Amino acid sequence: MGRAVQSDLRSGAVLDLGSGGGVPGLVLARLAPGSVWTLLDSQERRTEFLTEAVHELGLAGRVVVVRARAEDVGRRVEHRERYRLVTSRSFGAAGITAECGSPLLAVGGRLVVSEPPSTDENRWPAAPLLELGLECRRVDVDGLGFAVLEKVAPTPEWAPRRVGRLGKRPYF
């Protein structure tokens, strides 16, 4: 990963969006002992697994598991524009990931998204991203499929839209 993203991992609050089985959240939390993590997933079975894994790996002091919808968490004061880094792997379409990730990021923070093997060059369109306060800085970091989106402005109050709207009408 790029130097800036590695720096974000060393300190500050980090959130893994749609943690599922814990990749990359649990792995990166183990590799970056100075970081404080929130693993976010909406499914009970997944969050139960993540909670057990956090305890078994000895990460309970700096990794918390939150069972909630990203759309709801992005509107909560304790999470809104708080995180220096948000990671995402297989969370959803690009527009949904950007709309859910942007409200969680502090200005200057980064959203790092694992990309599919063949990525459409229009996957991260500049104008809609900027409306969410994001700019796409890099795609394909160190030969791996990652998009790095930087938070350059506050997220508009309307984002994220309420649960159910994103899947039916993705922002882009």
Molecular structure report:
The chain has 172 residues and is of the alpha/beta class. Helices cover 29% and strands 27% of the residues. The chain contains seven helices and seven strands. It has a seven-stranded mixed β-sheet, with helices on both faces. The protein is globular, with a radius of gyration of 15 Å. The model has no long low-confidence stretch (mean pLDDT 92).
In short:
Helix content is 29%, strand content 27%. The protein is α/β, with parallel strands linked by helices and 172 residues long.
Secondary structure elements and pairings:
Layout: H1 3-10, E1 12-17, H2 25-31, E2 35-41, H3 44-56, E3 63-67, H4 70-73, E4 83-88, H5 94-101, E5 105-114, H6 126-131, E6 134-139, E7 146-151, H7 165-168
Parallel strand pairs: 1-2, 1-4, 2-3, 4-5
Antiparallel strand pairs: 5-7, 6-7
Pairing-aware structural class of the strands and helices?
alpha/beta
What's the total count of β strands?
A: 7
Order of adjacent strands in the largest pleated sheet: 3-2-1-4-5-7-6
Can you write the helix and strand succession as a string?
A: HEHEHEHEHEHEEH
The major β-sheet equals: 7 strands, mixed
> Treating each run of at least 4 consecutive H or I residues as one helix, how many helices?
7
Mean pLDDT: 92
- What's the gyration radius in Å? 15 Å
**Unreliable parts:** none
Q: Could you tell me the strand content as a percent range?
A: 25-35%
Percent of residues in helices comes to 25-40%
Distance between the termini: 26 Å
Shape: globular
